[in-house]
Design brief:
- The complex is a heterodimer of chains A (333) and B (424).
- Chain A is an all-alpha fold and 333 residues long.
- Chain A has a single domain, classed as ABC transporter involved in vitamin B12 uptake, BtuC.
- Helix content of chain A is 76%, strand content 2%.
- Chain A has 15 helices and 2 strands.
- Chain A has a two-stranded antiparallel ribbon with strand order 1-2.
- In chain A, α14 runs antiparallel to α15.
- In chain B, α1 packs antiparallel against α2, α6 runs parallel beside α7 and α8 runs parallel beside α9.
- The longest helix of chain B has 41 residues.
- The chains are: A mainly alpha (333), B alpha/beta (424).
């Protein structure tokens, strides 16, 4: 037995090394790739640049929101208020702007200020009042939705002006010979690169990861733990406002806009190898996770499965993918 | 390590099995659709049949979205609804909430009582814009009648159990002179309404109950007429074999199943190719995704049928964003859709489930308490917004999801009470 093993080891050493190199890559990229090929197989038109950009435009909000969620997750918390903040952004934005294009800029600033406030509350309640973030942000989920709906009287009021909606819907006509280069994709790239720098290249990110990994050690090494925690929640809530602006732009005013997004962002982040309870996570991988999730939605749509089965398959795939990701990252550690 | 590996392998195996099973069936049907598309160029007539066949089988397991649950369907009711659309209503001209179709008047002297009255209302919920507009209109109607001294409203928040308890509480309180019920679901609320009938007069509206005990039942023609009007308009304005996407909100709701049942029959009779039947959950973003994918997949979509209009504008925008011509479409009487229609000169129609029925419920209840004759059932007309009367229903300054068929324009405090502004 021993002799045979030794023999194969020498002959396959290159293959083995290649296999190990492949294994070192985060599996979420393979999952996304497989789904990408599969979707293209069902719908060849999907690969046409215009169509693919339309898809990216659709996926951009979830990808950005997931990147925001990663900051809270790696710091050891959860933010369940994301979906509600998105919905409230759309509803309150419509009331404030009321179809007046001149109002767009101050409305966007006001909404971002609202996001800042919600993030501060989430962070302060979690750090100073010692309420677990799961509960604190669950409360915020109900509050943000309730306030938005109460203000609007139960049904959406007002319209979002076109220059507000252009971020989610419009694009630069004729750029690179395309029909439309969506603004949402530009926003996606800007936030993707910015968040990648912030978490992986700057001291801030290192401190945040250290905090999530071991709060006590981080505190002893001089990290301002409370400030870091609060900043993660603020970042996430303000990202949710950005996501709301994109989603409201794409679809228009609706009280359903943000429904379920909190779970989708967490699932996407975990799919991208982000560890719940903190300490480990990657912005590009989490965004690839969000992309994979959107591809999955598209694929299930194309396959034309009945809705209940589609939900079941979706849940199954998420569990399987996360289990696989968790399994392989744990081994690589 | 070992159990983990086994677990993940098992998961992936199950997953693959499911996907292969589902993927397999749809592959064959989609090939059929592709073949059909090729033959279109060769022999148009023949192809139309193949396309239709492909459409029928084409949804694969997605048939559930296209199928009509049998417990919600009755051909007799469907035919009767279609007949009622063209019946001229009786009652005061220009006040559809006071009108009725083929009335069967009943005597209510047994309920007659001296005012002032306390009206009690058990409401299924105020959980969507249609109900918000309806309930606002109802409150405005109550304010018109000084003889209604008190109006007690209990919101069941879309929960059968809560509504049953609400009705029991209202009856037990002994304060109510009459009970108005908008049932959350038909079957669950029937016993509670029967019980209430023993103590006081009851008026039911919106969704029905399976008992004759209420003094009267107020309802427009219903879901069949809604679905038929939209589908018939599409069929009349599209050529044979035109590709149509049908968008539904969610499965299993009787008032929505009947809309689709009627539309499906029209499309089958008129050779319209329904390429997709999808549930959009009333979510703009999802609807936009469904339409965008359908345009990519089939190259062109000629028409869109919807069982409710809240997401109609999102559907239309998907065509704009894809650089495609506007489809022939049916929405509903929501302001945002009517405005979009007027601005872009769409080929469109808006069947309605009129919110003015919330007024009628109060009017009927008052008549019952005053011992006047009322029709039972009180069949309300169900007008549609068409190209001819569109201008009359577009009301700038009203919220996007305001329902134009509220019959509330002449009521006090319009439009502020409904969330609108007088001039814009």
């Amino acid at each position: 037995m021993a002799r045979i093993t030794a023999g194969t080891a020498t002959t396959d050493s290159f293959g083995l090394r290649a296999w190990q190199a492949v294994r070192a890559i985060n599996p979420v990229y393979f999952i996304a790739l497989v789904l990408l090929v599969w979707v293209g197989f069902r719908n060849p038109a999907f690969y046409q640049p215009d169509n693919f950009l339309t898809f990216l435009q659709r996926a951009a909000p979830l990808m950005i929101l997931t990147a925001g969620q990663v900051f809270v997750l790696v710091s050891g918390g959860f933010d369940l208020s994301v979906g509600s903040v998105v919905t409230s952004t759309v509803i309150i934005g419509a009331i404030l702007a009321n179809n007046d294009p001149g109002a767009t800029w101050w409305v966007i600033l006001a909404l971002l200020a609202g996001g800042l406030l919600i993030g501060l509350i989430n962070g302060a309640v979690t750090t100073y009042l010692k309420v677990p973030s799961l509960i604190a942000t669950l409360g915020m989920l109900l509050m943000a939705r309730g306030v938005g709906l109460y203000w609007s009287g139960g049904a959406p009021r007002g319209y979002l002006p076109d220059n507000f909606r252009m971020w989610g819907r419009g694009g630069i006509e004729g750029l690179f010979g395309l029909r439309d280069f969506p603004y949402a994709v530009i926003v996606l790239v800007v936030f993707g690169v910015g968040y990648w720098l912030l978490l992986h290249k700057l001291n801030y990110g290192r401190q945040l990861l250290a905090l999530g990994d071991n709060p006590r050690a981080a505190r002893l090494s001089g990290v301002n733990v409370n400030l870091m925690r609060i900043s993660a929640f603020v970042l996430c809530s303000m990202t949710a406002v950005i996501g709301g602006i994109l989603l409201g732009g794409r679809g228009g005013v609706s009280i359903e806009t943000g429904t379920g997004l909190e779970m989708q962002t967490i699932a996407a982040a975990v799919l991208g190898g982000t560890m719940l309870l903190g300490g480990r996570g990657s912005i590009p991988a989490a965004m690839a996770g969000a992309l994979a999730l959107e591809l999955l939605f598209t694929l299930l749509n194309l396959l034309g499965l009945p809705k209940p089965l589609r939900d079941a398959v979706q849940g199954l795939i998420i569990i399987a993918a996360v289990a696989y990701t968790a399994y392989s990252t744990r081994r690589n550690r | 390590m070992k159990p983990l590996r086994i677990l993940s392998l098992m998961l992936i195996a199950v997953l693959l099995a499911v996907l292969v099973a589902c993927g397999g069936t749809t592959t064959t049907t989609e090939e059929a659709a592709d073949n059909a598309a090729e033959t279109v160029e060769e022999a148009a007539n023949e192809a139309a049949e193949t396309v239709n066949e492909a459409a029928e089988t084409g949804a694969g397991l997605g048939m559930e979205a296209a199928a009509v649950a049998t417990e919600f369907f009755s051909q007799e009711d469907l035919d009767n609804s279609i007949r009622l659309i063209s019946v001229t209503p009786e009652g005061p001209e220009g006040e559809p909430w006071n009108q009725y179709l083929e009335p069967n008047f009943i005597d209510t002297t047994q309920y007659a009582k001296e005012g002032p009255y306390t009206f009690c209302f058990s409401n299924a919920g105020v959980n969507n814009p249609w109900r918000v507009v309806g309930y606002t209109t109802m409150q405005a109607e109550v304010d018109l009648h000084p003889e209604i001294e008190e109006f007690i409203h209990v919101d069941a928040e879309g929960n059968d159990e809560k509504q049953i308890a609400d009705i029991q509480d209202l009856v037990a309180s002994g304060n109510c002179d009459i009970l108005i019920v908008s049932p959350n679901t038909t079957l669950a609320l029937t016993p509670a309404v029967e019980e209430a009938c023993k103590s006081l007069p009851v008026v039911v509206f919106d969704r029905g109950v399976q008992t004759d005990c209420p003094a009267t039942f107020v309802q427009p023609i219903g879901g069949y007429a809604f679905g038929y009007t939209g589908a018939k308009f599409l069929a009349d304005n599209l050529p044979d074999g035109a590709k149509v996407v049908a968008l539904r909100i969610l499965p299993g709701v009787d008032v929505l199943e009947t809309r689709w049942a009627a539309a499906k029959q029209v499309f089958e009779q008129e050779n319209i190719d329904v390429v997709e039947v999808q549930f959009g959950d009333g979510n703009n973003d999802k609807v936009k995704t469904i339409i965008t994918d359908a345009i990519q997949k089939y190259g062109q979509i000629d028409g869109v049928w919807m069982d409710a209009g809240a997401t109609a504008v999102a559907a239309i925008e998907a065509f704009e964003d894809a650089g495609q011509p506007y489809p022939v479409i049916n929405g509903e009487d929501q302001q945002d859709f009517l405005v979009k229609w007027q601005e872009n000169d769409l080929t469109a129609i808006a069947p309605t489930f009129p919110t003015f029925q919330w007024r009628t419920a109060i009017i009927a209840a008052l008549k019952v308490l005053q011992g006047e004759q009322v029709p039972d059932p009180w069949r309300l007309p169900q007008p549609a917004v068409t190209q001819e009367n569109l201008d009359q229903y577009v009301q700038p300054g009203m919220p996007p999801l305001h329902y134009a068929m509220c019959g509330c324009e002449t009521m006090p405090d319009f439009p502020e009470r409904w969330g609108g502004t007088a001039s814009q």
